[in-house]
Amino acid sequence: MNRAVAGDRAAWDALVDRFGQMVWSVARGFRLDETTAKDVSQTVWLKLIENIGTIKDPERLPGWLATTCRREALRVARARERSVPTDFEYDIEDETASLDEMLIEDEESRLVVRAFHQLDEACRQLLRLMTVEPALSYEEIAEVTGRPIGSLGPTRARCLEKLKSAIARITSGAGGS
Amino acid sequence: MSEYTTPRDDDQLIARLRKGLGESDAAPADVTSFAKAAFTWRDIDAELAELEFDSVDEEVPSGVRSTGTARMVSFQTGQWILDVEYDETTGRLMGHIAPSARYTIELHTSGAFFTTTSDESGRFHADGVIPGPLSLVLRLEDGQVIKTQWIVL
Hints:
The complex is a heterodimer of chains A (177) and B (153). By secondary structure, chain A is mainly α.
C-alpha cells in the first residue's frame, strides 16, 4: 500500500486485484442492482485514491474499504429511492440470480447458491460478508451491517440453518425451479 | 441430485457458497479496469473539498411532501463553498461557487470529464448528466486546484 501511495502503478493494480472482489461483494450485499453496485464500487476506489495518504496502517485498509462502501451504498440507495424495492424489482433480481447460477461449474456450489438466493436479505448480506476474500474481521462485519458484534455468531448459525433448510427443500423438489 | 446430502459441516457449506458466489457474482471486469485506470488521474496537489451537506442525509419531516427528486450537496474547503443540485429525472445539474466569480469547472464522471463555466455570480449548470460517480474540479489562475470528494449521484 505504501508503494501505491508513492505512485507505484503496479502496487495500485495489486491492491485492486486483491480487494476488488471484496468491495463488489459488500456493495452487492446492500441489494444494489448491478449498475448501482458498479457506481458504488468505482466511487470507493476513487475515494481511496483521494484518501490513500491518510490511511496510515495497511491493516486498516479492508475495514476502510468496507465501511466506505457501506456509506456510499446507503447514500445512493436513498438518493435513488431503491432502498425499498418493489415486487417488480424482486422479480428481476430472481431472474438474474438464476441466470448467474448457470456460470457455476460445480454442481454442489450451484445448489448452495440457489438456496442462498432464497434467504432473506439480512442473511444474504451476512453470509456474503462472511464469504468474501480476503476475509473481513467480525469487527468489520459488525460495522458494515450495523449489528452488535456479539450477535454475529448466533446470526451466522441461524442463517446457515436456513440455508440448509433451503437446500433440503430444493433437493426434495419442493423449492426447485 | 437425489444423491446429494446436505453438508453438515458449516465451514464446508461456507466454502461452497464462497466458490459459487465467486463464480456467479464476480466483480465485473470493467469495474476492476476502471479502478486501475483511475490511479493515473490522481492529483496529489489538489485541495480536497469535503462533503458538508447531502440532502439524502436529511430526514424528511412527516407531513411535509417532498418537493421533487432533486439531490442537493455542498462541499467546502477553506473559503470555498461548492453547492450542487442535481435532478435525475431531467439530467440537469445546477451549481454555485462561492466566492462568486467566473470559473471554469471540470465535471468528472466515471471515465470522462467535461467543462462548463460559471457566470459572475458563480452560478453554472450542465445538462445531460447521467447518474453515477461525480467530482468537480476547479483550476484557478494562480495554479491552485480545488477538487470535491467523489460522490455517487
